[in-house]
Amino acid sequence: MKTYQNQFTIFRIFIDLVLIGAVFFVSAFIVHGREPAFHNAQNIYILIVVGVVWYMSARSVGLYDEFRSRDFSIEFVVLIKSLTIHLIGFVFVLFLLKEIVLTREFVLVYASMSLFVLGGEKFVQRYIIEQVRLRGKNLRNVLIVGAGYAGRKFRNSIKKNPHFGYTFIGYLDEKPRPILNGEYLGRIDDIEKVLAKKHVDDVIIALPPSSNNSIERVIHICENYPVHVRIIPDYVRFLSPKFRMSMFDNFPVISVKSYTLEELHWRFMKRVFDIVFSSALFLLLFWWLFPFIALGIKLSSKGPVFFKQERWGKNNERIVCYKFRTMVASSTDVDENGKYRQATKDDPRITRIGRFLRETNLDELPQFINVLRGEMSVVGPRPHPTPLNLESKNIIQYYMRRHLVKPGLTGWAQVNGFRGETKDSRMMQKRIEYDIWYIDNWSFLLDLQIIIFTALRMFKGDPMAY
Predict the structure, then answer these.
(1) Of 43, 58, 181, 187, which has the most beta carbons under 10 Å away?
(2) Rounded Cα gap, residues 408 and 311, in angstroms
């Protein structure tokens, strides 16, 4: 089944690349008339950029994932997300390379035509496939060997999604079960009789590892018939929706959980954005804002302008995190028992200018230095001080998973109200759940959303900022 899915995915990608390239040049012709919008030498180069950026944006939102298991409305929403990232990325790449300046008219026409053409293509594609299968064509008959958890889940998936194109024949199992609702065809040893009597395209083996002898016998019998044999591992119940399978030498290896930022090209894209975004802020804003803030800190209290603190970054590596000093220089971040002291509302350690900086999040701006150094990212789970990490890692579930990626200046937990003081373990647990969700569901569009939400909170004010 995976083979058919891979072939169809390649076909869908190819069609989209052809259409997106055609739309680009048609849009250029519409906006610029008969005069050539681009020099001929640039056409192939631009087409490559268009295709690469489209592929990366589509992959980032899962446009080509799970085609058969979602309806058109869901796919259309994913298409809109993909186009949004594509436009931002494409304009950004051309701006970075200083090759072409796209007019607003062109971007509007290109976006509108892309949505219309690609949306129509996907609707027609689904309609044709559904019509073919309604006529009983392009269907595959499936026999499931094993009526346990994995076998029943697989059967339910087929029944709930007829557009998958599979027809369920029945179960073979060691004993009949009332919950099978008449779909029990016999014992596992009866497989040869069933294959001889019924037309079967795929045999799905969903037996536990303890049934190795039965699995071997089923495979041996199926080799004498024109059927495909697939095995669903019994440990499928432990896999997350984000699992990944790969090959190590001749061994299939399954990752129980995987995340997008494991892939090199997405890490590279995120890193490039971090550098460009941070550099732009330093050139446009920080060169005059930092001295202004530093002067206010110096006039309000004695001590250094910057506050440096050891925190944990990716893979638990210790990093020195920079902030503008917001507390009196003599304050400490641990109490007499060695427990970490989080900042609290009306904390007496906070200076007057420090309170303003914390309420507006301006105290975090020096961490863009950490971003440029590659220790942090603009968006990611907030880094915690070493004492807080040591306190939390053994009592908060999944706490250490947040260190799979680089920490960020802002994150999904922060824009959802979980920033600042965590008064008890339940609040910390909730924050970590948001961090884990971000890691599991990362996309470039999600990072942009978080940055926008953070900026809005800075202007509106955050009740948890103190």
Answers:
(1) 58
(2) 12
